[in-house]
Model the fold of this input.
Amino acid sequence: MLFDNVAFAEQLVKCQKSVKNTLLRVLSIVGFLVLFIGISIVMSMFMTGDLSTWRNFIGGVIAVVGVFGVYMAFRYTDLEYEYSFLDGDMDVIKIYGKSRRKKYFSFSASSVSAVGRLDEKNRSAYSGDFVKKYDVTSGAPGTDKWFVALANDTGRRMLMVFEPNEKMLEAMRRSVNKRLFLD
Done:
C-alpha cells in the first residue's frame, strides 16, 4: 500500500470544566442580569414622555448585547484540543465551542529533545527552565499525561504536556528518534 510508511494519528481531547470556567459562566449571567435591571431602573426614572421610545430601543440593544456576551462566555469556556501528527510534524489546535478552530502550537520531530511519561522517573527531563510551557491536557485527574521537551528555531526550550492515546504514541515512535523516548 502507498501510505504504509506514513506515521499519522489524530486525537481529540475534551477539557474538563474547571472552577474558573464555571465561575465565568455564572458571573456572565449574573452580570448581565444586574446590568440589565440596573439600567432599566435608571432609564425608567429619567426617560419619560417622548423619550420612552428611546428607552425601549436602548433597552432592546442592551438586552441583545448582553445575551451575546453570555453566549460568548459559554462558547469560549467549552474547550477541546485536537492533536494531529503526520510524519514528524505535530499540530495542536484549540477548538472553542465545538466550532471555532485556532492553531495553538506546532513542532517538528527534529526539534524534540525528549518524550516521556509525566512521572517522577522522568522529572529531570521536564523540570527546569523552559521559555514556554503548553498544557494541552483535559485537566482530568488520573489521566496518563506525557511531555515533549523541544527547542524552537532560536534554540529556546519549550515543553508541551499532553494526553496521547496509543495510536498517537506509536506514530511519534515511528518519527521521533527512539533514544529520545524515556518510557
